[in-house]
Here is the input.
Amino acid sequence: MYNFQFSNPTKIVFGKGQIQNIGQEIDSSHRVLLMYGGGSIKKNGVYQQVIESLSNHDLVEFSGVEPNPSLETLSKAIELVESKGIDYILAVGGGSVIDGAKFVAAAAKFEGDDPWDILAKGAKVVSALPLSCILTLPATGTESNGNSVITKRSTQDKLPFSSPHVYPQVAILDPSVTFSLPPRQVANGVVDAFVHTIEQYLTYDVNAPVQDRFAEGLLSTLIEEGPKALSEPDNYDVRANIMWAATMALNGLIGVGVPQDWATHGIGHEITALHGLDHAQTLAIVLPSLMREKKEHKAAKLLQFGRRVWGITEGSDDAIIEQAIAKTAAFFEEMGVPTTLSGYGIEASAIDALVAQMEKHKLHAMGEHKDINPDVARRILENAA
Amino acid sequence: MYNFQFSNPTKIVFGKGQIQNIGQEIDSSHRVLLMYGGGSIKKNGVYQQVIESLSNHDLVEFSGVEPNPSLETLSKAIELVESKGIDYILAVGGGSVIDGAKFVAAAAKFEGDDPWDILAKGAKVVSALPLSCILTLPATGTESNGNSVITKRSTQDKLPFSSPHVYPQVAILDPSVTFSLPPRQVANGVVDAFVHTIEQYLTYDVNAPVQDRFAEGLLSTLIEEGPKALSEPDNYDVRANIMWAATMALNGLIGVGVPQDWATHGIGHEITALHGLDHAQTLAIVLPSLMREKKEHKAAKLLQFGRRVWGITEGSDDAIIEQAIAKTAAFFEEMGVPTTLSGYGIEASAIDALVAQMEKHKLHAMGEHKDINPDVARRILENAA
Here is the structure.
């Protein structure tokens, strides 16, 4: 096991009927910016619960945070923070809204000229407004980590940043609000959480059985519960298990002390930036092909993955590995998420431009061995055409 | 899954060579009470690393915290805190030293007449001195939770308290300092962590696969790594895996949203109080017998435990359960920890006095069904004679 540091300050408030307690979690002295997306929270009752619970708070609303939240939209929120004297942010929504709120929280305290430098130039975040969140779509784990991904529409750049200052203070997770999600969003969330787990697990072999087994536990849970969320959309336990698995998949815990390979995300972000695919759709395209590309390096862990997660006991090592990869792709397809570029109408001729974007973003050393460069990514995309 | 709240503020600093960084973690404005036990930290080099790292801090030492830390000993530390103007506590040692430090931290800020009321009368802890710890013996999980168990020697009472105010701020875990532990302490730690995990897992069936699989992952790790720690005492990875498993077993995570059964601890504490057995020895006596006593209530989970943790695939449900219980007891015995009262020279005639202690402490509703009372505990002890 590698040396590591781990802490996670987010307070999780999990379960039915918890949203109405948000008012108790935020000191009423704060002037709160309530950020949300396209208005689904007004249809499913979440908005009403939040407004009622915060009736004693000074509240300013900012709606319209889009999927793949953009610098262009969030800049308007930053202006609002300044003009209205906002000192606390409450994000209500999925990963996009929460990621957007993190950027606004950091930008509001940023001392440089242009907050986009946080993403484009790695400018350090030294403080941020306090923020909390109410999660309505389990997927990215952003509700209890310091990560955020923002898109600059004008240049088609989709870039991440991380800071300990943007961990949500409180995250309320009520699985019952996910009953009304469209199946596509449910499926995307399951695929996203699955891939996060894989990226912290499926690397070369470091002796860390606790982390391995935790990761395998999340993968098995997502495999069992994911299809049930589509076939039994009102099953509370199913929704709760997926929601908790998605949080645990990216709160930092399963990744302590082990190598990580975030190449699937690196490559996937470029597909979203150029073609507008949902984030999880891009991961479903890249991951199975990346597994095949790196089969030799990752052989020991792929074998363990095949045996423990997929329960494959028969066949040669190579046959078990191939079957594990095939089952992973079949799982994504079963969730309704295609695993090829052509499944989304993207032709192989589009790969050149994707590779050029990776060159532009200097993605020359992806993967736990830092050996996935744009040329290797080209092969991965060609094999996923 | 039940509704739950979860947060854990402790910062974990894990790995080789980390102890020398303790000075950076504690602001040098503090006047620090350095608490430790019988002096083993002077033999294994830990003391020297701590003193060097804290060379710029104002430091007062308090040594001699004994196993099953006593009110009598800790009262002297509380006096020292007051007389020397201490405002920070650093505990260096195993669970006893850290538990003792938590009591001192809470007692120093206690506003009632007698700090023992925190344990004897459940008096609320409303604040505590800040504390951090350097863990030298993986076992209790106290390095990242708000729990503490203190013994009043004069009355033979061994009682727990919990407070969010006594979570260590920083916990340094260097697995290499555990190389020099006596085998008995290594074995005790593995058994303790195993039983903590079981107590949050082996209950009636609530649908919570993430928690189940995390618990199973810890149990499997302890089963695999525990005997290796005895046969390969200098194997760093083995020590690291046990240390991390023991922390994860009782930092609150695996117990969220599920029923819990702490009857093994409840009964075990009385055996330690009256007979001076090591904490883990008492758990090894009680747990297998408690599993048999509650076999019907816990049948579904016992079956899952047998299949997933022990890999038993053949036989009737009852045969799998019986085998799982037998394997659990055999595992403790393999670690050198006997699983009967007679294994420690305690005769069956001692059970009356143990039951009387449980009556005195009003342990009338132990277990996840609150149906383990002193009469049931008597049967459990008789079957473990």
